[in-house]
Design brief:
By secondary structure, the protein is mainly α. It has 16 helices and no strands. α1 packs across α2 and α1 runs antiparallel to α8. It is globular and about 65 Å long. It starts with 14 loop residues before the first helix and ends in a 9-residue tail after the last helix.
């Protein structure tokens, strides 16, 4: 049992087996994390109504935009921890973790300070319908006032995964997921708190998972030192965190901004389509889990092996890991095409909404295979220390391709029946950007510039 929850050295053994063994707990954990939003949507859709479901979904892009700082810190520390752990550099590892904790506290305070002033203006900028804007605002305000739990769980979980320990992060997330589901039902179905109750349940659950992750780190004295002196950031480690994490934070910001711009177009199609979009994105979240899980696994795997100066092993693992990921996504795509309609019916009892959601889901289905290639090979590049190349790829696929394509298709398909255009343009543009992104990522990986980015 102790070995199960211990850090894992991924510089030895079969690359494919190491990657799969690391990915499975993380995949289960990512599915559990996706349950946060899914259960929120199911409960508000069933107990409050379709408009409440639309409100939770409309708040998503703004939430993701304001979490980009934490995304950057999490990616940066994950890369540094995996490389220093692979290189067996205890002192550097301890200083990195201490610096990360301090930076997270500072960032949390900053986010809590600015969000009360920007959430409502952003919602109005998105042309959020008046029928749901109040719910959106209250949902976001509660989440941001309790952001410390979300921030520390994700960042401390990144530290654990950097050590090769995906099982502990899974366990703490499962505990939090159960708490979240139970509190969702109590706050919404029993107490009638509506959208605010869903947000409150999420905040409490995330705080529990953050505390459990911190206590786990405090017990890992055989790997690194958790002392007060390491909480004082040193310039080198602060700079490396920012240098490695900033491109990933920018990538997330670009993605979130594009989602906000596209959300404005989505809102123009009315409450029914907004609710359908929420349902598709919730199912999409589960379909994307293998891609994100394998991508994170490849980052840890590449980081540890680059730190150990085993580049041949990195390349071998990239081939095996990507192949397994693509096979997994192919199976998921087939299941979505066969049974997707039944998944849509979980969220709503409105037949028209179920049909519309499934129609849009079918457009995206094949794109999940392309996303496996993007996430796995981007993960390898990030693990090696090259976080800039994935950033540029994200900028091209979202800013240059996805957003203009969505609005262009909407404009070209305008008609008396659909004055704002065909709503399917939202998902067609996303599919095209995914496929092109996979091709660009593959070419950048083959170019090999990422091999020269390891930490000193």
């Amino acid at each position: 049992m102790k070995k199960l929850f211990a850090p894992v050295d991924m510089t030895e053994g079969s690359p494919g087996k190491r990657i799969v063994a690391f990915t499975i707990p993380m995949l289960i954990g990512n599915i559990a994390q996706q349950l946060y939003n899914t259960v929120d949507s199911i409960i508000v859709g069933r107990f409050v109504g379709d408009n409440a479901l639309a409100a939770v979904g409309s708040a998503g892009p703004i939430l993701n935009l304001l979490l980009v700082l934490f995304v950057g810190i999490s990616v940066g520390v994950g890369i540094m921890v995996s490389q220093y752990f692979g290189a067996k550099q205890r002192e550097e590892l301890s200083k990195t973790i201490g610096c990360c904790i301090t930076l997270t506290i500072i960032t949390t305070i900053l986010v809590m300070a600015i969000t009360p002033f920007v959430t409502m203006p952003l919602l109005r900028l998105l042309n959020t319908p008046d029928t749901i804007i109040g719910w959106c605002n209250s949902y976001l305000m509660i989440l941001f006032m309790g952001i410390i739990g979300c921030a520390f769980y994700n960042i401390l979980g990144g530290i654990l995964r950097g050590h090769g320990d995906s099982v502990s992060a899974l366990l703490y997330l499962l505990v939090a997921t159960v708490i979240n589901i139970v509190l969702d039902y109590i706050f919404v179905a029993k107490f009638g708190l509506g959208v605010a109750g869903v947000a409150l349940a999420t905040v409490i659950a995330q705080m529990v998972s953050a505390v459990l992750s911190f206590l786990k780190l405090c017990r890992m004295k055989d790997v690194f030192d958790m002392r007060k002196k390491y909480l004082v950031p040193e310039k080198k480690y602060m700079w490396d965190l920012i240098r490695l994490g900033l491109p990933s934070g920018v990538t997330q910001a670009i993605f979130s901004l594009s989602m906000i711009v596209v959300q404005s177009l989505t809102n123009s199609f009315g409450e029914m389509f907004i609710a359908a979009n929420v349902i598709v994105m919730r199912v999409d979240g589960f379909a994307m889990m293998p891609a994100f899980s394998f991508g994170t696994a490849m980052t840890t795997y590449a980081g540890q092996n680059v730190g150990a100066r085993k580049m041949d092993r990195v390349i071998k693992g990239a081939k095996q890991g990507t192949g397994i990921a693509v096979a997994t996504s192919t199976v998921i795509t087939i299941l979505i095409l066969l049974f997707g309609k039944y998944l849509m019916a979980i969220f709503t009892s409105t037949p028209e909404l179920v049909d519309l959601s499934f129609t849009m889901m079918k457009i995206l289905a094949v794109g999940y295979i392309a996303m496996e290639v993007t996430q796995c090979l981007s993960g390898v590049m990030r693990g090696a220390g090259d976080t800039v190349t994935p950033m540029w790829i994200s900028m091209v696929t979202t800013v240059v391709i996805r957003v203009p394509l969505a609005y262009g298709l909407a404009y070209l398909t305008r008609s008396p029946k659909n004055p704002n255009g065909n709503s399917a343009c939202i998902f067609i543009s996303l599919l095209i950007s995914w496929v092109l992104g996979a091709g660009i990522t593959f070419l950048c990986y083959r170019a090999g510039r990422w091999k020269k980015k390891a930490l000193d």
